[in-house]
């Protein structure tokens, strides 16, 4: 099934080989089990500003920059874009509420996946739509040596957030690799769309409440139920990678 998924990926994008050198990780819902806290925070703060957003909708729109999420809501309820001042105020309130919760734990299996990445001599990067400083600052503490600042793309670095491919295209540029030389690991439909639009083989790990079909419809090349499952099957991904590179 995995080998077929890679062959379909190569055919769809017109690539001759699949030979990854780097893995581009989303952060929330992939490295940190933080999405339940984001969902609660966005839902609570949006109501305070008359911009109702359900927790499920937060998962559907995960990956957008904070400004994009706020504009999505103000266009719906206020029939206009938010001003810069409104965006700053709403996002600061959302961050304040988020930071009142206990720290989000590491996603189960995340460390194991990173160990597999290092064992196979691949580079690792973070590509996130988040600007949440409390989480970005924890990357080095929780994953020492894995994600220095030069290996992180956040909402502060891009003009267009996910589902636009810009964040992952910037990730490719930072890594110095071509699309067929990278793997994206995502949990969100908009993130999956962004990875696919950047022509990168995109693995979806369904760590949230959305149905598998949502991630499949977003275009995921390979769907797994968790980061733990990815760690267990990472060897298969590397073996198929090697085979594809040798046979094309």
TrEMBL record:
GO molecular function, one term: sugar-phosphatase activity
Alphabetized Gene3D superfamilies for the sequence: HAD superfamily/HAD-like, Putative phosphatase, domain 2
InterPro entries associated with the record: HAD-like_sf (IPR036412), HAD-like_SPP (IPR051806), HAD-SF_hydro_IA (IPR006439), HAD_2 (IPR041492), HAD_sf (IPR023214), PGP-like_dom2 (IPR023198)
A Pfam family annotated for this UniProt entry: HAD_2
Name of the protein this chain belongs to: Beta-phosphoglucomutase
Top-level taxonomy: unclassified sequences, metagenomes, organismal metagenomes
């Amino acid at each position: 099934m995995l080998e077929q998924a890679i062959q379909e990926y190569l055919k769809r994008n017109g690539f001759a080989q699949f030979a990854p050198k780097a893995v581009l990780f989303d952060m929330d819902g992939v490295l940190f089990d933080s999405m339940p806290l984001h969902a609660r925070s966005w839902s609570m703060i949006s109501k305070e500003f008359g911009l109702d957003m359900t927790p499920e909708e937060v998962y559907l729109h995960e990956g957008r920059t904070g400004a994009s999420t706020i504009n999505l809501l103000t266009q719906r309820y206020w029939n206009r874009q938010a001003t810069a001042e409104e965006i700053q105020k709403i996002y600061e309130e959302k961050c304040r509420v988020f930071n009142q919760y206990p720290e989000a734990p590491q996603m189960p299996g995340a460390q194991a996946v990173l160990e597999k990445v290092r064992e196979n001599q691949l580079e690792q990067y973070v590509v996130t739509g988040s600007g949440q400083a409390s989480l970005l600052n924890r990357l080095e503490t929780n994953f020492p040596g894995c994600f220095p600042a030069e290996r992180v793309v956040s909402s502060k670095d891009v003009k267009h957030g996910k589902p636009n491919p810009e964040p992952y295209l910037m990730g490719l540029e930072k890594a110095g690799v071509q699309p067929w030389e990278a793997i994206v690991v995502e949990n969100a439909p908009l993130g999956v769309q962004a990875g696919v639009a950047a022509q990168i083989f995109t693995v979806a790990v369904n760590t949230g409440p959305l149905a598998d079909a949502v991630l499949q419809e977003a275009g995921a090349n390979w769907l797994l139920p968790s980061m733990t499952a990815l760690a267990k099957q990472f060897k298969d991904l590397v073996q198929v990678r090697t085979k594809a590179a040798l046979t094309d």
